[in-house]
Amino acid sequence: MNVFYTLSGFAVGLLVGITGVGGGSLMTPLLVFLFNFHPATAVGTDLLFAALTKVSGVWVHHGKHGSVDWKIVGWLSLGSLPFAIATLFALNHLTSIGKEITGTITFTLGIALILTACALFVRSALLHYAEQLGQIDDEHSNLENAARFKHLEIPATVLIGMVLGVLVTLTSVGAGALGTVALLFLYPRMTTLKIVGTDLAHAIPLTAIAGFGHWMLGNVDFVLLSSLLMGSIPGIWIGSHLSAKIPEKVLRPVLATVLLLIGLKFVLS
């Protein structure tokens, strides 16, 4: 066990508990820049880390709150899981013929972080819009507008799953913030609790399959994984209790700005 890895896991877990920002967007850049891990190792280890830490969250959302829409999880998975597997096969092929994939991973990671930062900036506005929709009294108008785009929901959900499958497998980023914002766009009248629960439930099989694939490619450091878990579990617990005391509207823009700067550094390096 490395105490610095454990402390890093605690710090990331604390921020995740307070803000709800996906651990991948924080953990992977930290492992690359602070501890100088190879990007592929950082991504692979973080994917298994994410799969393990999200299980308890889904247990609460499904068992206690009943806030998982399993149909939407199924449509997202129909797009994401095959594309995650295809991405893993592509990475394996490129590695086997001696192609250097570090540049591809870092560039895609930068793009994913920039998209995540943008998602964090607009998330609050989307949540406010969704709340306003729920307060509109003209139910007939609501139903008419919802029915007009109903036929596009399933193909759009599958398409979003495809994009997330590639992004998450390449970068370990996107299953949280990007997935949540995409669902808010597609299902604005779904409650916030159900959006979060559904996105979380979809992230588990996606990160598990992508993480297992990276393990098979030799991109997982299990000593690092154990150290991160030792710190993150108490960090998430403490952060979730502190979340009510720290104003989200202050912390989220700061985090979004940091992710944007890190993303630009990855893209321009």
What does this structure look like?
- This protein has 269 residues and is mainly α.
- It has one domain (3-268).
- The chain is 84% helix and 0% strand.
- It has helices spanning 3-19, 23-33, 39-65, 70-96, 102-135, 139-148, 150-171, 177-186, 192-216, 222-242, 248-268.
- The chain is globular, with a radius of gyration of 18 Å.
Question: What does the largest sheet look like?
Answer: none
Structural class based on helices, strands and sheet pairing: mainly alpha
The tally of strands reads: 0
Identify low-pLDDT runs.
135-148
The radius of gyration over CA amounts to 18 Å
Topology of helices and strands:
Elements: H1 3-19, H2 23-33, H3 39-65, H4 70-96, H5 102-135, H6 139-148, H7 150-171, H8 177-186, H9 192-216, H10 222-242, H11 248-268
Helix pairs in contact: 1-2, 1-10, 2-3, 3-7, 3-9, 3-10, 4-7, 4-9, 5-8, 5-11, 7-8, 8-9
What descriptive keywords fit this protein?
single chain; 11 helices; mainly alpha; 269 residues
Short précis:
By secondary structure, this protein is mostly helical.
